[in-house]
Design a protein that fits this description.
Number of helices: 4
Helix content: 40-55%
Structural class: alpha+beta
Radius of gyration: 16 Å
Strand order of the largest sheet: 4-5-6-7
Distance between the termini: 18 Å
Oligomer: single chain
Strand content: 25-35%
Shape: globular
Largest sheet: 4 strands, antiparallel
Length: about 160
């Protein structure tokens, strides 16, 4: 399994542009894909992506600790994503609030999913720092890094 972040503003060189600011990059449109068994699944899409990724980090950690169903409400679309842990699996349901119907539901091994997600998040953060080391000082970057560290520790402990 692999997870990929596709950003609307995928050119991280924008982070070096002093007139644009990192907020432009951190809040651009994001699509998160899961690639498994030669199949690509759009997991979720959102604007204000750093905020949603920070929330998703918390969601995965809380799901691991409590096992309680969690909801991720993304910006920029009418989809609501429900995450629940069933045994060793994570069950993800995409509900379209606009049409009032379930779009899809997928089940993945929870730890395999979390490992793939942490790898994608790490690549994303490393690309930001490689282009502009000062991004490490940004509050959103710090929160993203803290979430990554918590998820990596969770995976190592399992």
């Amino acid at each position: 399994m692999k997870i990929r972040f596709d950003l609307e503003e995928d050119d991280v060189s924008v982070l070096q542009n002093k007139t644009v600011h990192a907020d432009y990059y951190l809040d651009s449109y994001l699509e998160v894909f899961v690639l498994e068994n030669n199949k690509e699944i759009l997991l979720f899409s959102t604007t204000l992506h750093s905020t949603i990724v920070i929330e998703f980090n918390h969601l995965l950690f809380d799901l691991y600790q409590t096992g309680e169903e969690r909801v991720l409400d993304t910006f920029g679309n009418a989809n609501v994503y429900t995450y629940k842990k069933e045994g060793k699996n994570i069950v993800i349901t995409n509900f379209d609030a606009f049409s009032d119907s379930q779009e899809w539901q997928y089940t993945f091994d929870f730890m395999e999913f979390t490992k793939a997600y942490t790898k994608a998040l790490k690549r994303y953060l490393q690309a930001m720092v490689a282009k502009e080391p000062n991004n490490m000082k940004r509050p959103n970057f710090k929160l993203l890094s803290q979430g990554l560290a918590a998820l990596e520790a969770m995976v190592r402990a399992k």
